[in-house]
Design a protein that fits this description.
Length: 180
Amino acid sequence: MTFPELPSLVTMDFNRYRFWSDNPRSRQLQKGSRFVSPSQQDIANTLIDDFSFFDDWKERYLYIIELGGGLPAFEEANKTEAHRVQGCTSNAWLVAELDSATSLITFRADSDSQIVRGLISILLMFFSERSPAEIIDFDVTPYFHEMTLDKHLSHSRSNGLNFMIQKMKALAANCQNASD
């Protein structure tokens, strides 16, 4: 199934801001000649709008899978037990890198499940390229509720998603403590 063009994170205008990228990981907004990252609230609003476009859960499910197809390559060397997210039914791996110049954390992640890759993509939109405090303080749960993810994911997928969020926040806390 191919989806019609959506006003998504890649091409969405937010008033005078415009996302620049074909990759949600490296999204930026342009305001004049200055680039800034969209706020987590802007991302939430865009995702909620995107999800509301679809009439049924099957279309949303396929959209999540499509989002996962856009994940950047994940090195096989990082698919180790140390990077595996415990509690996920499917195999999922997560790596965090702190940019010392900007104090922003970039997450990279992957899974052997298409739907989990899509869920990871959504989490990266919210949490990657953020400060440790932004990651730790942001509660994504209400937005998942608005996207109806909480109603349509299996119990084991929901648990895995929560374990991924907890691991992202724990890695952010470690980065924050290391920089203090």
